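Can't paste images in this forum, so I'm doing it all in text. The chain is below; anyone willing to post the predicted structure tokens underneath?
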Amino acid sequence: VETKDINLFLEPEVIYTDRFKSYPEIKQGVVKHINTNTVYQWRRTYVRENQSKCCPTLTANMGTGGHNVPLILDDRGIRKLTPRECFNLQRFPSEFSLPKLSNSALYKLAGNAVSLPVVKMITEKLDRIL
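Text version of the structure:
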């Protein structure tokens, strides 16, 4: 599966984290700019840097109680990935219209989704076998 620069999946609208009680811990742990292709995860009590230069697994519980929330540092500050960005990372087409749901519900949908390139790869391999 082809890897791409995370910046290709970001959108201009952002959700900043400075309003959260946990912001001091987040600010201390999120130190590398997104230009280094670094994405972090807030893990309820600490920040985890994903050192693979890929987005960490998007889980259905991100955004519901503060677990596994993907974070980045851009020119304006530290922020969560938006639901649209999560779908972008799952390689949903830009013209795919997200349902009118709360962000928490959209994060769950993105976390439960299967990455489209992975589905394509599996179906191609199955097609060759069958």
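The beta strands are 15-16, 39-43, 47-50, 67-74, 77-80. The helical segments are 23-29, 83-89, 103-112, 116-129.
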